[in-house]
Design brief:
mainly alpha; MetI-like fold
Length: 300
């Protein structure tokens, strides 16, 4: 097929006429495309909503509904204070320094309980997971103790340790120990046998296998256990600070309960939730840092 060129000075031929001539000469219905720009799907042309905006839509709608119910009188302030009232109370607690002092006390209790629980839980898991005799001696008592609700041990801890800081930290420690033990133990026993065989073929000793194969393989389970333990630590703190506390977020809640101050109680609950979310964010950041070698599915 050939397309004749127009002599100089003559008007340019119409592209549609050239397409018709090409189709006529070839005897087919193929035509020269008129628009050579790539076709963009309609879904791709739509502006994508930022993820942070999508994640905040639900809480914002919930707050708006809460404020609407409070403003119309459907939700009484005796039952639950309005978001505006809670914001003003939070500002007052921050300005007079009582909230910061309570947060510092509660954070210190959680940190001590988490540290002791991590040492005890991880140590028991290593003994039970790495040694057969350790499993026989340690695992059965731990499995028995973890079925006992740690909240039910509060009266016993008060008899043993009094009503000071010790029983509060002991409750948090006990709550942290068992989730960490279970996940570290499962991580050690769940290491791929082929990796162990590969390490043995490379001439690694038993402790070399533990250091270079078993412990790295158990690290994902240990970090998962740490996330569970943090959640349990804040739950245990709520119960611990009900035991004759004279400081801390739980102490503020007890005072607010006595005076029927639902606004102060909600502020304390929000602080508990914020601290728990912050702790989980720290562990997840640590997870991304230490587990860069492990491929993960991030979703679509």
């Amino acid at each position: 097929m050939s397309i004749s060129h127009a002599p100089p000075g003559s008007p340019e031929p119409d592209i549609s006429e050239i397409s018709k001539q090409a189709a006529t000469q070839d005897g087919t219905a193929d035509t020269v495309p008129l628009d050579l720009a790539p076709i963009v799907p309609a879904s791709s042309r739509r502006t994508r909503v930022p993820r942070w905006l999508r994640r905040t839509t639900g809480p914002i709608l919930l707050l708006a509904l809460w404020q609407l119910l409070s403003g119309t009188g459907v939700l009484s302030s005796d039952v639950l204070a309005s978001p505006g009232r809670i914001a003003r109370v939070a500002e007052d607690l921050i300005s007079d320094g009582s909230l910061a002092t309570a947060m510092g006390t509660s954070l210190r209790r959680v940190a001590l309980g988490l540290l002791l629980g991590t040492v005890i839980g991880t140590g028991l898991a290593l003994v039970s997971g790495l040694f057969r005799i350790g499993e026989d001696v340690v695992d059965a008592p731990v499995q028995m103790l973890r079925t006992v609700p740690f909240v039910g041990l509060i009266p016993l801890f008060i008899i043993w340790f009094g009503i000071g800081e010790t029983p509060k930290i002991a409750i948090i420690t006990l709550g942290v120990t068992f989730p960490l033990y279970l996940n570290v133990y499962a991580g050690i026993r769940g290491v791929d046998a082929q990796l162990i065989e590969a390490g043995e073929s490379l001439g690694l000793s038993r402790w070399g296998l533990v250091r270079h194969v078993v412990l790295p393989g158990a690290l994902p389970g240990a970090l998962t256990g740490l996330r569970y333990s943090l959640g349990v630590a804040w739950l245990a703190l709520v119960f611990a600070e009900q035991v004759n506390a004279d400081a801390g977020i739980g102490f503020l809640m007890v005072q607010a309960r006595d005076f029927l101050r639902t606004d102060v109680i909600v502020v304390c609950l929000i602080v508990y939730a914020f601290l728990g979310l912050l702790a989980d964010f720290i562990v997840r950041s640590l997870e991304r840092l230490l587990l860069q070698w492990r491929p993960t599915f991030t979703g679509r």
